[in-house]
Design a protein that fits this description.
This protein is of the alpha/beta class. 39% of the residues lie in helices and 15% in strands. The chain contains 16 helices and 16 strands.
Length: 464
């Protein structure tokens, strides 16, 4: 009887991996723990007047789900380089390392392996294309901050499509790094397209494509990140536009393709303990996922979509006092903590000692304080203390991973989060487990509990 059961189990496994997967979408929400997903859904529900409900993201409707640990080889709490390397190769490494194991041996990424087998490869993100997570799929360096070297390896990767904000340091910082990376990429056969419209035109004839955001009004290139969804202006490049450009580009050239799509700004927002902005980034990645899902519906027997995260950021807690949430409060936030901080910085540049009423006006316009969000006398007094310190040049700025936020901006966001009953334990990463969602042939392989070393090998198993 046991032998029959064992043979039946082997038969089920064989059937499970028998489907021919030709298209793989690998979504990675940087910093996206389960509470970032649930918080985004509950926030959207609160906006619709359903305080105890959930308006589901696409990913949580997928038929299979699981969880994964995220620790690295060197630390109980990983950084994005080590986590990205693990998600790209199935091997743990030390924090700060890209594409190398703990002893410095070069690892083969899933993208490199599939490229060798004739697949089209696309790597896209909302941050720089040489940032840790996208770089983990093509770069092999001991230090993630070696941006110029990472960028050079991007141009040498032979991958077909890159999309995101651009290069961090396209010109390089040292005398032995003279070649501008955009020009170097063009010499290697890439067409560089700035903005969505230019990319659509270039995609028709380009052999390989690098799609980055358009230059600003002064012609400057911004390589660090696309704007947050909450700060987005008309004409800003979006992750959904990048994915919608990459799909036909790869499909027209290859019978099979693999795409890694990173929602990188979830992490940035969570480093600033900025819930409204983080939830907006989860939904922004979900919009990009909708583009992939539409393709899946056209090719359901051949398309696999896997969604996960490299780690959780911020130690986000949905609840900080009693048994209530007031996520509807954060709907009044009109900009990210970054932009709010910049508004106060600009105010103090234009006026050495602006009035309290001028400061209050920014809080009113951007956070809804006093007009739509009730502020008690005690809360106003606390905000006023930050104002007085700023006037006396004693305000203490907070340096987060990617942005220094002044005390007035931080105080406003913190108060709004507190009123929503949202808590944070850190401005760094945590060891929280991360979610996995999947749909398509062999998607059941991603169900249950996994170590993050298992995800990339399971994708390869699913496409064999």
């Amino acid at each position: 009887m046991k032998r029959i059961t064992f043979l039946l189990t082997l038969l089920v496994i064989a059937i499970a991996v028998s489907a021919e997967v030709k298209y793989v979408f690998y979504f990675i929400g940087d910093g996206m723990g389960s509470n970032q997903v649930l918080g985004a859904e509950m926030y959207q529900s609160a906006l619709m007047g359903q305080p105890l409900g959930r308006v589901q993201t696409l990913m949580t409707t997928f038929p299979y789900s699981g969880s994964a640990s995220s620790y690295s080889k060197s630390n109980g709490i990983t950084d994005s380089a080590a986590a990205g390397t693990c998600l790209a190769t199935g091997s743990k490494t030390t924090n700060g390392t890209l594409g190398l194991d703990g002893e410095g041996k070069e690892l083969t990424t899933i993208a490199e392996e599939l490229k060798q087998k004739g697949w089209g490869i696309g790597i896209m993100t909302t941050v720089a294309i040489d940032h840790a997570t996208p770089a983990a799929f093509y770069a092999h360096v001991p230090n993630r901050d070696e941006y110029y070297k990472v960028g050079m390896q991007l141009t040498e990767s032979s991958f077909d499509f890159f999309g995101g904000a651009g290069f961090h340091h396209p010109q390089g910082k040292n005398d032995d790094e003279p070649e501008n990376l955009y020009r170097l990429a063009e010499k290697k056969g890439y067409t560089v397209a700035h903005g969505y419209e230019e990319a659509i035109k270039s995609a028709q004839s380009a052999e390989r494509l690098i799609m980055v955001q358009a230059n600003d009004d002064q012609g400057a290139q911004h390589g660090s990140n696309l704007p947050y969804a909450i700060d987005r202006k008309e004409g800003d490049l979006t992750l959904a536009q990048i994915v919608s450009t990459a799909i036909p580009f790869l499909k027209d050239r290859y019978d099979r393709f693999f795409m890694m799509v990173e929602g990188g700004m979830i992490d940035y927002a969570c480093h600033g303990d900025d819930a409204a902005t983080a939830f907006g980034e989860v939904w922004d990645m979900d919009e990009a996922m909708q583009v992939a899902y539409k393709f899946y519906l056209e090719h359901p027997e051949e398309t696999l979509i896997v969604v996960t995260a490299d780690h959780e950021t911020g130690g986000l807690a949905l609840g900080n006092s009693d048994y209530t949430l007031h996520l509807d409060m954060i709907q009044h936030q009109q900009c990210s903590a970054w932009v709010l901080s910049d508004l106060f910085t600009q105010l103090f540049k234009e006026n050495k000692k602006p009035s309290w009423e001028q400061v209050k006006q920014i809080y009113r316009e951007q956070l809804g304080f006093w007009d739509t969000v009730e502020i008690s006398a005690k809360e106003e007094q606390k905000l006023k203390e930050y104002y007085k310190a700023a006037c006396n040049k004693k305000g203490k700025d907070t340096k987060t991973m990617y942005k220094t936020i002044n005390s007035l901006g931080e105080a406003g966001i913190a108060l709004l989060n507190e009123k929503a009953h949202i808590g944070w334990t850190t401005r760094a990463h945590s060891a929280h487990a991360v979610p996995i969602f999947s749909i398509g042939p062999n998607a059941e392989l991603f169900s249950g509990w996994h170590d993050n070393t298992e995800i990339a090998p399971t994708i390869l198993k699913a496409v064999q």
